Amino acid sequence: MTSLKSLNVFISLILVLNLSWVKVALSNWDEATGHLQSFKPTDEWLSKNKPFTCTPEIQVAECARNTRNKFPEIQLFAHFITNHADDAFHGCPYGTCCAYEAFPQPDEVEVAFPDEHIFFWHGFGGMSGVGTNLIADPQTGIFGYETRQHPKFILGPPNYRYRENGHDTGYPRYKSVTAGLKAWPKNIYPSSYDKLPGHPKCGTANSPNKDPGQNPKAGKVVYTPVPASAYFPPPPLLIN
User: Fold this and answer.
1) 199-233 core/surface letters (b: 16 or more CB in 10 A; e: else)
2) Which of 44, 104, 130, 210 could form a cystine bridge with 108, CB 3.0-4.6 A?
3) Are 236 and 111 in contact (CB under 8 A)?
């Protein structure tokens, strides 16, 4: 009986360790190379391409800055869907982040203001840059970061020594997954896109921006939310 009990404890420990490893592997600090605020893939594209994972109840910044893939998966694209019930919490918008080994072409995305946002990796699409603030402390809004080595939120300026941009380019399947893929053209973005705020709105189309920003009592304030009037539905991409 004692041996059986010890065996059960040992097996449980292995399971816990394995689950912990998976949790770490699903949070690589590998930032998006491109983004489009207030866009979504078309329903047709979504019906043909299934995500390899979806993570609910996370910040849009987590979706853009920490990939969801685990070896040997290759993450090329992520689609974030806002849950507006959480619009007033620090670090908003919150929602569901779905990750893919494929990405839509310019004629396979459409405006979804201000509910959905898309992100690209490995330079395959979107306007250059991550497209969000840093990850924020849900209690205070003060910025921090998450890494594969330290999966718990770390408060303070990012230590870029732990960033692993392009981490999955060394995976065995990277070349086969990306072979023949066509990157987006660089000249399809209307000039008005540059006027969009650097972080998505926390609110519906007709509501105020509910982003509470940062609590000045918790640390140095480096971000002040803009009013709802700064946001607008982006015009369509410049494609034929």
Assistant:
1) bbbbbeeeeebbbbebeeeebeeebebeebeebbe
2) 104
3) yes
Within-domain flag for 237: no
Q: Three-class SS of residue 126?
A: coil
What is the strand order of the sheet 135-136 is part of?
135-136, 143-145, 154-155
Q: CA separation (Å) from 128 to 75, 168, 216, 231, 238?
A: 17, 20, 31, 19, 16
pTM above 0.85, yes or no: yes
Sequential DSSP letters for 51-64: -SEEEEEEEHHHHH
Residue carrying the six token digits 């840093």: 134
Domain enclosing residue 207, as ranges = 20-230
The token duo for 209 is 């921006």
The answer to whether 34 touches 129, Cβ cutoff 8 Å, is yes
Report mean pLDDT in 10-residue bins for the chain, 240 residues: 40 34 57 99 99 98 96 97 97 98 98 98 98 97 91 90 95 97 97 97 98 91 96 93
Q: Report the distance separating Cα 118 and Cα 80, nearest Å.
A: 6
Structural tokens at position 178: 């990306």
Q: How many domains does the chain have?
A: 1
pLDDT on residue 9: 37
In a domain, 131, yes or no: yes
Task: Report the amino acid identity of residue 3.
Answer: S
Short-list 32, 92, 89, CA closest to 64? 32
For residue 18, give the 3-state DSSP assignment.
helix
Residue 3 lies in a domain: no
